[in-house]
Recover the amino acids of this structure.
């Protein structure tokens, strides 16, 4: 069995990652006490987008890119939250303790 050749493009990441961030922000309004589950939910949303929309031709490609989309969305959100926290507090401390 060979590894699949993954075809992805700029538009996949440009649409999928912000869409995951928007879904997570909406979910945080309805489930505010479940913040520990946010990375797992982001990966599940990334898997759904990738398997059923972006890469329906190959399950393995969909799984791989779905995980990449979810991890990228969580990383982008965390980086933005850290920058905003530092900017508001005017010091190099971290919001994630």
């Amino acid at each position: 069995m060979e590894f699949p050749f993954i075809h992805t493009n700029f538009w996949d990441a440009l649409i999928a990652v912000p869409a995951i961030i928007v879904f997570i922000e909406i979910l945080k309004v309805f489930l505010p006490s479940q913040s520990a589950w946010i990375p797992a939910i982001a990966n599940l949303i990334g898997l759904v987008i990738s398997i059923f929309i972006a890469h329906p031709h190959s399950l393995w490609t969909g799984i791989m890119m779905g995980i990449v989309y979810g991890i990228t969305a969580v990383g982008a959100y965390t980086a933005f939250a850290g920058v905003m926290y530092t900017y508001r507090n005017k010091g190099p401390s971290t919001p994630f303790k």
